[in-house]
UniProtKB/TrEMBL annotation, chains A, B:
Native source species: Kitasatospora setae (strain ATCC 33774 / DSM 43861 / JCM 3304 / KCC A-0304 / NBRC 14216 / KM-6054) (Streptomyces setae)
Name of this chain's protein: Putative IclR family transcriptional regulator
Alphabetical list of SMART domains matching this protein: HTH_ICLR
One GO BP: negative regulation of DNA-templated transcription
Taxon lineage: Bacteria, Bacillati, Actinomycetota, Actinomycetes, Kitasatosporales
Gene3D superfamilies, alphabetized: 3.30.450.40, Winged helix-like DNA-binding domain superfamily/Winged helix DNA-binding domain
MF (Gene Ontology): DNA binding; DNA-binding transcription factor activity
Keywords: DNA-binding, Transcription, Transcription regulation
C-alpha cells in the first residue's frame, strides 16, 4: 500500500476504470482527475499500461484502450459463449426483419448490452454494445428482471423508477404486474419505455429448454412500426428457443 | 518494485495476460505458473482483480475474464470505430452470400480478427475474433502486408514463412510478386493458403476513398466453392468502398 492507501494494483484498475463507451479517449490530466491520482502517479501507471499494450496514445496525445486489452477481454466467457451461440440466430432474425437485434445480460441492477446487429435501415438507438442501463428501463431489462430472484425484484422496485418518456411505467405496482405478465407470456412488447421513437420486443434466453435465464434477446423497431413489433413475437420465440438449446448443448458438453 | 523486480502494476498485467481465446479459463495455480508469480502473490492479485470485476470465478473454482473488463475494453477505438462503420456493410455482404465475413487489422507482424459474421450455413474456420495469426499466413493478412511500409514487408519476408497447407506460398520471391499483384488488383483470392478446406477473398479498407489502409475485409468460403469466390470480387469491392467512405466521413468529423 502506498501513503494514500491505494495499492499499485488498485491504481492500475482505477486508471482502466476511467475509460468507458462514453469516454473512450482521455488526456493524462483527465485520467489523473477521474482516477483520483496525482498526475505524476497517473503518468507512471499509464506508461506501464502503454508498454504492455493495454493503453495506446492517439496522435493528439490523448489515451485510449489498446488492442491488447481488447484481445484479452474478448475471451470473457459470459459474453463470448453467449455471442457464439446466439449470433447465427441473431443473423436469421436480422435477415428476416432488417431491424436492430440485441443481446443483453443482467449485471446487478443493470443491463449490459453484449451484442448488436444493425443494418443501414435499422432505427438509431440510445443503447450501444458495452453500455449499461438500469434493468427496469428497457424491455430486455424487464424480461431479465421478471426472471430474477424475487428479493432482487423487490430491491429494484423499492427504488424510484426513472421516467424516460411519458409512457415509461414508474409505478412499482404496475411494473410488478407487468413482470408477472412477462413470465406468463414469454414475449414482452415494450412500447416507447426508453425512447419516444422505439418499440422493443424481448424474450428470455435460457440455458437449455427449461434452464435458468441467462440473457435477453430483443428486436427494436421504430415506434411508428409498433403493430409490426407484435408480428415479431413468433420469429423472436423461435430464435430464443434455438439459442437456449444451443447453450444447453454447450453446457452439457462442458460438464 | 518488489524483490523479484516486477512492479505491482506489472503483476496485474502478467495475470491478465494469461487469459486469451485459447485459455479463457484458468485455475489459480495455472495463473501463478503462466504469470511467473508465487501462488501467494497470484492469489492476492487475483483477489484484487476479482473485487473490481476484472476477473470472475466459475462454479468449478477456475477464473476467467469478468464482464467489467470486457466493458472497459469494448471501448477500444481501433476496434470500435472500425466495427461501427463496417458492420452494416458486413451485414449486406453476409445476406448476399451467407458466408463468413471477417474484418481484421494488422498489429506488428500479426493479424488480429476484430469482427466476424457467420451464419448456420457458413464454413467452420480456424480463426476467431480476438485471435492472432502471422500476417503472411492469411489472405486478409497478405492484403494488409501488401499495403504496409516496404521496410515492414522486408522484415516479414526475411523470416521463414510457415507452410499451413501444400498450397501455402512460402517462397519469399513468389510472395513478394503476390504483394505487387494485390496492390494492382485490389482484391486478392487466397486459395487454400491457411486451410485445405477454405478459400478467402480479401480487400483493403481505407480511411476515405484514397486514404491509408486501416483494415482488411474478407469473405471465406469452402474450397469446393473456389469458383464462387471469384464471383465475390465485385460485392466485396462495393463493401470496402462503402466502409472506406464511412471511415473517411467519421475521420473528417473528428477533426
Amino acid at each position: 500500500m502506498s501513503a494514500n492507501g491505494v495499492s499499485a494494483a488498485g491504481k492500475v484498475l482505477r486508471v482502466l476504470a476511467v475509460f468507458d463507451r462514453e469516454h473512450p479517449s482521455r488526456t493524462l490530466s483527465e485520467i489523473a482527475r477521474s482516477a483520483g491520482l496525482a498526475v505524476s502517479t497517473a503518468h507512471r501507471v499509464v506508461a506501464e499500461l502503454a508498454a504492455w499494450g493495454a493503453l495506446e496514445r492517439a496522435e493528439d496525445g490523448s489515451w485510449h484502450v489498446g488492442l491488447r486489452l481488447w484481445e484479452v477481454a474478448s475471451g470473457c466467457p459470459r459474453t463470448q459463449i453467449l455471442r457464439d451461440a446466439a449470433l447465427p440466430f441473431m443473423q436469421d432474425l436480422y435477415e428476416a426483419t432488417h431491424e436492430n437485434i440485441q443481446l443483453a445480460v443482467r449485471e446487478g441492477t443493470e443491463l449490459v448490452f453484449v451484442e448488436r446487429i444493425a443494418g443501414h435501415r435499422s432505427v438509431d438507438l440510445l443503447t450501444m454494445v458495452g453500455t449499461r442501463f438500469p434493468v427496469a428501463s428497457t424491455g430486455m431489462g424487464r424480461v431479465l428482471l421478471a426472471h430474477a430472484p424475487r428479493e432482487f425484484q423487490d430491491e429494484v422496485l423499492a427504488e424510484p423508477l426513472r421516467s424516460w418518456t411519458p409512457h415509461t411505467v414508474t409505478d412499482p405496482r404496475t411494473l410488478r404486474a407487468q413482470l408477472d405478465l412477462i413470465r406468463r407470456e414469454q414475449v414482452f412488447v415494450s412500447d416507447r419505455q426508453l425512447s419516444e421513437s422505439t418499440v422493443a420486443v424481448a424474450a428470455p434466453v435460457r440455458i437449455g429448454r427449461s434452464g435458468p435465464v441467462s440473457a435477453a434477446l430483443g428486436i427494436v423497431v421504430a415506434a411508428r412500426g409498433a403493430e409490426r413489433a407484435r408480428g415479431l413475437r413468433e420469429p423472436l420465440l423461435r430464435a430464443v428457443h434455438g439459442i437456449s438449446e444451443e447453450l444447453g448443448r454447450r453446457a452439457r458438453t462442458a460438464l
